[in-house]
Amino acid sequence: MPVATDKQVKEIEEAAYNVWHNYYKDIFPPEQIDYMLGKYQSKEALRRQMSEGYIYYMLLADDKLAGYMCLLPQSNAVFLSRLYIKAEYRRQGLAKKAIAHMDVVFGTPDAGMTHIKKIVLRVERQNSFAINVYEHLGFRKVRSEDRDIGGGYVCNEYIMERNIITK
User: Fold this and answer.
1) Is this prediction's pTM over 0.90?
2) Of all helices (H) and strands (E), which one includes residue 65?
3) What is the pLDDT of residues 122-151, one digit of tens each?
4) Alpha helical stretches, state H, the chain
5) β-strand 140-150 against 153-163: which pairing, if any?
6) CATH, range 6-163
7) Which residues are CB-neighbours of 57 under 8 A, at least 6 positions away?
């Protein structure tokens, strides 16, 4: 479900806080998690990103917020900026369903988005769980990047890609 209302933006902000502090505690120090949440996942940051063309989606399970994803369509690719699942909903196929939904949206001629040929994402190199999930879903590592995100912090990432599966 696309995020549109202030209430939904607040729900995404709260989910981000929950997911990031739970999931990234073994990858980043708490100060970096807080910095990144403020910079990328606060209500203000979410609204700014949405005004710049990012599209946030709520991932639901039993009508409850189970996670979220964020996409930025580009000329021939879609950037999967975020795909986060709350701990209690992991290993239930939600990431697979989210990626399959992207194939439908971008790979079905009737949707009018067939100029998008691939999905591109960034994943922290220490995030072996997510890397394994993405590889299982057909993504491949194309390069490494060390990205200065400000505040004295650097993200050490893989850029991964997967072709859109057309119908």
Assistant:
1) yes
2) strand 64-73
3) 999 999 999 999 999 999 999 999 999 999
4) 6-23, 30-36, 43-51, 94-107, 128-136
5) antiparallel
6) 3.40.630.30
7) 1, 2, 3, 68, 69, 70, 71, 98
Tell me the C-alpha to C-alpha distance, in Å, between residue 71 and each of 54, 123, 126, 137. Answer: 6, 14, 23, 17
Q: How far is CA 92 from the centre of its chain?
A: 17
Contacts of 91 (CB under 8 A, 6+ apart): none
Q: List the Cα angle 10/99/137 in 5-degree steps.
A: 130
Helix (H, G, I), strand (E, B) or coil at 86: coil
Task: Spell out the domain ranges in the chain.
Answer: 6-163
Which amino acid is it at 67?
Answer: G
**Residue-by-residue DSSP string for 112-159:** T-TT--EEEEEEETT-HHHHHHHHHTT-EEEEEEEEEEETTEEEEEEE
Span 113-118, mean pLDDT?
83
Q: Do 124 and 156 meet the contact criterion of CB atoms below 8 Å apart?
A: yes
Dihedral of alpha carbons 140, 143, 147, 153, sign: positive
As given in the structure block, the two tokens for residue 32 are 């970096």
The answer to whether 158 touches 80, Cβ cutoff 8 Å, is no
